[in-house]
C-alpha cells in the first residue's frame, strides 16, 4: 500500500503532466519550419483557415491531405516573405471567404454580425419595459375609498356592531 | 400595440423555420467557388508518362468553350462519373480536358484511363496538387466549364450524374457556346 503522502504526490504529478500537454495538432514534424518565428506565424495563420474537407476543423487541426498541402503552402508563402495577411488573401483568392473560420465583416455578413447585438438590445429593452411597468403598478398602490364607499363601509361596520 | 408585441416571437419563429425549410436537401458540404467568372489560374502541367502533350492555361483559353475535369485513379466517385464524362465529351462537342490530381504513382493515371477509356482532349498531371489548389479544388471529382476567354463560368463539385449532365452541364455549355 502507498503511503498517503506518496499517493498525494502521485496525484500532483499526474495533474502537472496534464497541464503541460497541449492540444494535439496535426502538423507533422517534417512540415515545420526551422525558424521558430516563421513557424509560430504559420501556426497562427493555419488556425484561422478552415479545412474544406472536414469543414469544422482548421487546417492546423486536420489530418486531411488537402489540409497538409495548404499548411505547406502557407509555410512556402511565409518563406517567400509574405505578410500574414498576404498569405491569407492568397488562400481566400482560391477558396473564397468560406476558408476563413472567422467570417469578415462585409455587406453579405452584416446580418451575421449584427443580429446578436440586435437581439441583445431587444432583450434589454424588453427587460427594462417589464420592470418599468412593474414599478409603476407597485408605486400606484390602492386608491383611497370614495365618499360613497366610505359611507357604505361605516354602514356595514355599524350594522355588524349592532348585532354583536 | 400589445397584440403586435405578442406576435413578434411567432413571426420570428416562422421566418427562422422558413430559412431552415429552404435549406433542407441542400448539400452543406458544397462550397461556393471563389473563382466563378474569374480568369482560370495560370498553370503548366506535364503530360502523363508515355504521352507528349500536357496541359496548360493556353489550352483552355483558345477561344472556344471547354471543360476541365479533375480526376484521380484513387477517387471512387471519379470511376462512377467516368462514363458520363465520356458521354459529355461525345455530346457537348467541346474539348474536355483532364486534370489528373495527386496520383501516388504517375503510372496510376495512365492505367486508369487505359482500363476505363480516355475521353480527354489532353491530360495534365498535377502530382503536387498545387494546380488543384490554384483552381480551388477541395475534393475530386470537380468539373469546371471555361469560356473562350479562359474565364471559369461554372463549377460542379462531386461526381457528375445523369441529372447533372443533362440538366446543368450540357445546357450551360450550350448557353456559353451561344
UniProtKB/TrEMBL annotation, chain A:
Sorted alphabetically, the Gene Ontology BP terms of this entry are: cytochrome complex assembly
Q: Where is the CcmH/CycL/Ccl2/NrfF N-terminal domain?
A: 15-157
> Superkingdom of this entry's organism?
Bacteria
Note the Pfam families from the entry: CcmH
Record's InterPro entries?
C-type_cytochrome_biogenesis, CcmH/CycL/Ccl2/NrfF_N, CcmH/CycL/NrfF/Ccl2_sf
Q: Which Gene Ontology terms cover its molecular function? A: metal ion binding
Enumerate the transmembrane spans. 110-131
**One GO cellular component, as annotated:** plasma membrane
Q: Which residues form a coiled coil?
A: none
Q: Which family does it belong to?
A: Belongs to the CcmH/CycL/Ccl2/NrfF family.
State the function annotated in the UniProt record: Possible subunit of a heme lyase.
Q: What is this protein called?
A: Cytochrome c-type biogenesis protein
Organism name = Thalassospira alkalitolerans
Q: What is the lineage of its organism?
A: Bacteria, Pseudomonadati, Pseudomonadota, Alphaproteobacteria, Rhodospirillales
From TrEMBL, chain B:
> Which SUPFAM superfamilies does this UniProt record tie to the protein?
Thioredoxin-like
One family from Pfam that matches here is Redoxin
Q: Which residues form the signal peptide?
A: none
Could you cite one Gene Ontology molecular function of this protein?
Answer: disulfide oxidoreductase activity
Annotated keywords: Cytochrome c-type biogenesis, Disulfide bond, Redox-active center
Q: Where in the cell is it found?
A: Cell envelope
**Major place of residence:** other
- Quote the InterPro entries the UniProt record gives: Periplasmic_diS_OxRdtase_DsbE, Redoxin, Thioredoxin-like_sf, Thioredoxin_domain, Thioredoxin_ResA/DsbE_sf
| Taxonomic superkingdom | Bacteria
Against CDD domains, the record matches this protein to: TlpA_like_DsbE (cd03010)
All copies of the Thioredoxin domain together span 34-178
Show the PROSITE patterns listed in the entry: THIOREDOXIN_2 (PS51352)
Q: What is any one of the record's Gene Ontology cellular component terms?
A: outer membrane-bounded periplasmic space
Any GO BP? cytochrome complex assembly
Alphabetical list of NCBIfam families matching this protein = dsbE (TIGR00385)
| Similarity-based family | Belongs to the thioredoxin family. DsbE subfamily.
Q: What is this protein called?
A: Thiol:disulfide oxidoreductase DsbE
Organism equals Thalassospira alkalitolerans
Amino acid at each position: 500500500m502507498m503511503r498517503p503522502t506518496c499517493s498525494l504526490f502521485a496525484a500532483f504529478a499526474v495533474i502537472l503532466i496534464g497541464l503541460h500537454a497541449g492540444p494535439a495538432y496535426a502538423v507533422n514534424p517534417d512540415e515545420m519550419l526551422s525558424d521558430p518565428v516563421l513557424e509560430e506565424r504559420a501556426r497562427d495563420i493555419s488556425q484561422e483557415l478552415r479545412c474544406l474537407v472536414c469543414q469544422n476543423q482548421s487546417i492546423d487541426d486536420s489530418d486531411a491531405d488537402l489540409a497538409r498541402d495548404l499548411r505547406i503552402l502557407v509555410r512556402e508563402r511565409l518563406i517567400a516573405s509574405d505578410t500574414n495577411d498576404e498569405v491569407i488573401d492568397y488562400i481566400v483568392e482560391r477558396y473564397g471567404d468560406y476558408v476563413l473560420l472567422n467570417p469578415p465583416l462585409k455587406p453579405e455578413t452584416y446580418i451575421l454580425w449584427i443580429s446578436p447585438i440586435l437581439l441583445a438590445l431587444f432583450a434589454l429593452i424588453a427587460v427594462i419595459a417589464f420592470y418599468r411597468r412593474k414599478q409603476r403598478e407597485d408605486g400606484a398602490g390602492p386608491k383611497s375609498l370614495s365618499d360613497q364607499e366610505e359611507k357604505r363601509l361605516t354602514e356595514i361596520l355599524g350594522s355588524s356592531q349592532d348585532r354583536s | 400595440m400589445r397584440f403586435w408585441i405578442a406576435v413578434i416571437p411567432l413571426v420570428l419563429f416562422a421566418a427562422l423555420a422558413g430559412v431552415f425549410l429552404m435549406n433542407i436537401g441542400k448539400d452543406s458540404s458544397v462550397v461556393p467557388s471563389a473563382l466563378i467568372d474569374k480568369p482560370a489560374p495560370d498553370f503548366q502541367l506535364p503530360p502523363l508518362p508515355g504521352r507528349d502533350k500536357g496541359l496548360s492555361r493556353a489550352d483552355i483559353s483558345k477561344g472556344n468553350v471547354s471543360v476541365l475535369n479533375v480526376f484521380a485513379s484513387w477517387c471512387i466517385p471519379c470511376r462512377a462519373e467516368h462514363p458520363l464524362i465520356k458521354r459529355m465529351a461525345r455530346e457537348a462537342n467541346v474539348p474536355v480536358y483532364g486534370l489528373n490530381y495527386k496520383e501516388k504513382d504517375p503510372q496510376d493515371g495512365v492505367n486508369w484511363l487505359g482500363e476505363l477509356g480516355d475521353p480527354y482532349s489532353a491530360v495534365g498531371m498535377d502530382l503536387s496538387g498545387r494546380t488543384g489548389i490554384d483552381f480551388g479544388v477541395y475534393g475530386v471529382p470537380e468539373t469546371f466549364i471555361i469560356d473562350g476567354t479562359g474565364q471559369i463560368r461554372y463549377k460542379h463539385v462531386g461526381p457528375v450524374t445523369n441529372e447533372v449532365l443533362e440538366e446543368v452541364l450540357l445546357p450551360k455549355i450550350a448557353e456559353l457556346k451561344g
